[in-house]
Amino acid sequence: MDANAPDLKSWRQATQLVRGGLKRSAFAETSEGLFMTSGYIYETAESAERAFKGEEERYIYSRYANPTVAMFEERLALLEGAEVCRATASGMAAVFAALLCQLKAGDRLVASRALFGSCHYIITELLPRYGIETELVDGTDLGQWEAALDRETACVFLETPSNPTLEIIDLAPVAELAHGAGARLVVDNVFATPVLQRPLELGADIVVYSTTKHIDGQGRSLGGAILTNDEDYVEDDLTPVLRHTGPAMSPFNAWLLVKSLETLAMRVERHAVNALDIAQYLSRRGGLASVLYPGLPSHPQHGLASTQMSAGGSVVCFDMTGGRVAAFDFINALRMVDISNNLGDTKSLVTHPATTTHQRLSAEERAQMGIGDGLVRVSVGLEDPQDIKEDLDQALKAAGV
Ligand SMILES: *Cc1c(COP(=O)(O)O)cnc(C)c1O
Q: From ligand 1's centre to the CA of 52, what distance in Å?
């Protein structure tokens, strides 16, 4: 160990985001190197043998580890306050690997009902195929968590704030109930990002991300990450499953993402300032059935959101009384805000969840989740908020609101 090596954990967040995990090569480059290599070479046959026996710590194959991916993982781990981070090729690869690696036939999983569409598919359709019992609860109702976790359970999965209804789940008591049932708590922290919410500090065991959203934040790459302090989980469950099933992140995407982390806190904080501005504007403007944003006092769990998150995030939703027709008229009249199912981008994006991200669900399931035909989701970008408001306003007028 270099005696002059900095203690990365003692650095403040902004410093960790710029410098954490940086490993310079023999070329002494300023910026993080892009190691676009699938494999590594050995000096001797004996060295290769030792590496495969695990006697020599070194890179073996990029399905296992890669220097650029490792820089990204280390930087994100510092931000999250986690010992371990493993990057994956997409957010869904992270969710699936994080769950699958610790579950087996006969196990039980409990999850909140308000889930991202693909998470809903994995939990309600895919896992049951392999003999895993799954149950969905209303995540905002602690009584339902208590009832579902009154017996042996292997895993609890939830999303807070949820997509797209922005429900907030009280992490500390749910973590306690999960642990009481023998379960690990896995939190999908995509909407909050590690800048606004730190689930591990509230009792979660594992945090997953789609880095495609705010962490890239510029609409360029797919990626995911799994973070934890649970050594047994890493050793016995996660590492072997990642190594042998191969959802590895490309070094190129890791290189984009390690540079994105440098500006993550600045971007997420500004997204939240802009989103609050837009949410306040929409509430004042009137004509809408409801405006949903965790940072608004009118949000049913505003109090909880204020203690659990340091700001309300980048997504604002609203319900239009005119249903699908009004929502489509509004969306089609936008001149600047783009129609896209992505979120957390520098560009403001709008989506109609009932016909896109949550189309696969039955009308009854959507109703249970509060996803009506008039619901519109806006991912507020980094443009000047005045321009966003003017675009929303003219489009609402065009839709007769
Ligand atoms: C986008 C998203 C995912 C999936 O991530 P991909 O990178 O698209 O695979 C999972 N959970 C939430 C909450 C998301 O918004």
A: 34
The reported pLDDT for the residue numbered 29 is 97
Q: Is 162 in the pocket of ligand 1 (CB under 6 A)?
A: no
Tokens 């699908």 found at: 324
What range defines the domain where residue 232 resides?
Answer: 8-261
d(CA 114, CA 185): 16
The pTM of this model reads 0.96
Torsion of CA 167, 168, 174, 178, to 10 degrees: 50
254 close to 279: Cβ distance less than 8 angstroms: no
Picking from 364, 396, 365, 400, the residue whose alpha carbon sits closest to that of residue 378 is 396
List all residues 6 or more positions away from 54 whose beta carbon is below 8 Å from its beta carbon: none
User: In this structure, are residues 105 and 129 in contact, taking their beta carbons and an 8 Å threshold?
Assistant: no
DSSP for residue 61: B
In a domain? residue 107? yes
Q: How remote is the CA of residue 285 from the centroid of ligand 1, in Å?
A: 31
Nearest to 92 by CA among 251, 247, 254: 247
Whole-number average pLDDT of the chain: 96
Q: Which atom of ligand 1 is nearest to the CA of 343?
A: 15
- Is the bond leading into 67 cis (omega within 30 degrees of zero)? no
* Lowest-confidence segment of 18-32, 334-348, 353-367 by average pLDDT: 353-367
Determine the Cα–Cα distance for residues 401 and 386; give it in Å rounded to an integer: 19
Ligand 1 contact, 190 CB (< 6 A): yes
Beta bridge partners of 319: 290, 375
Name the burial class of residue 284, with classes exposed (0-12), middle (13-18) and buried (19+) by CB atoms within 10 angstroms of its CB: exposed
Strand 133-137 relative to strand 349-351, pairing: unpaired
In a domain, 287, yes or no: yes
Confidence of residue 1 (pLDDT cuts 50, 70, 90): low
Atom number in ligand 1 closest to CA 211: 7
Pair (287, 245) in one structural domain: no
Residue that terminates a domain, selected from 207, 242, 261:
261
Tokens of 171: 């992490």
The answer on 237 and 280 residing in a single domain is no
User: d(Cα 316, Cα 324) in Å, to the nearest integer?
Assistant: 18
Number of domains within the chain? 2
Distances (CA, A) of 63 to 28, 130, 346: 26, 26, 31
For 241, list phi and psi in degrees, rounded to 5: -70, -40
